[in-house]
Amino acid sequence: MQTREGPVTTIEWLTTSTGVRYGYVYYHHTVRKRYRAALGTIRCIDDGFWRPYKLELRDFLKYLLGRLGTDNLDPFVFAGGGLVISSPEMPSDRDFVLRNIGISRRHHGTKLLKIYNHHDCAFAGGFARFNNDLRAEFEFHCRELFHAAHIVREAFPDLEIRLHFIDCEGVIRIEEPK
Ligand SMILES: [Zn+2]
Questions:
Q1: Which residues pair with 73 in a beta bridge?
Q2: Separation of 49 CA from ligand 1 center, angstroms?
Q3: How many whole angstroms from 82 Cα to the centroid of ligand 1?
Q4: Ligand 1 center to 88 CA (angstroms)
Q5: Residues with Cβ–ion distance below 5 A, ligand 1
Q6: Would you give per-residue pLDDT tens digits along the chain (178 residues)?
C-alpha cells in the first residue's frame, strides 16, 4: 500500500452518518508510542523570538538524546511565558500552568523544565514600560523568573528548572545568586 505524505491540494471530502464533513489537509504517517519527555519548556506565543528558542533547543535536545536516550519535548506556549507563573492576570492562570506541568510529569516523566521570558514582551507591557532601558528590563525579568522558579519548585521539589531570557542577541541562561 502506498503511504501518502505531505500537503493535500484538493481535499477529498467525506461525510459521516451524522452529516459531519471531513477530509485530510495533510498526510503524515505517525508511529504512535508512549514517550518519556527529555524536558518541558514554557515560552511566550511571541513569534518574533521563536527562532532563537528553537535553534537553542535543537542543540540542547541533541545533547539530551545522547545523555537520556530521548529527545521528546513537552512545549507549553502561552502569552507571557514564565510571567504567567510569577505574575498571572488571574490566579487560576497560574494553577492551569502548574496543572499542565503536573500532567507532563505524570504521563511523560518530565524531570527538567526550561522557562523562557523575552525582550519586549507585550504581556509585561513591552519595552516601552522600561523606557527602553535594557538593563532595567533584564533585571525585571530576572526577578520574575526567580519568582516563577520558586513557585514551581514549591509544587514540584524534584523538578530541575533552568531559567532563560531571550533578547535580540540570543538566548541567555540565568542563575539565581547563591
Ligand atoms: Zn511575550
A1: 39
A2: 9
A3: 9
A4: 13
A5: 44, 46, 121, 123
A6: 557 899 999 999 999 999 999 999 999 998 888 889 999 999 999 999 999 999 999 999 999 998 888 889 999 999 999 999 999 999 999 999 999 999 999 999 999 999 999 999 999 999 999 999 999 999 999 999 999 999 999 999 999 999 999 999 999 999 999 8
Please name each of the domains of the chain with its CATH number.
37-174 (3.40.1050)
**Any idea which residue has 504567567 for its cell?**
84
Residue written as grid cell 481535499: 11
Q: How far is the CA of 107 from the centre of ligand 1 (A)?
A: 28
| 100 closest CA partner among 17, 173, 159 | 159
Listed in sequence order, the DSSP H helices in the chain are: 50-68, 83-86, 91-108, 134-155
* Distance from the alpha carbon of residue 121 to the mean position of ligand 1, in angstroms: 4
Q: How far is the CA of 8 from the centre of ligand 1 (A)?
A: 33
Cell digits for 147? Answer: 519568582
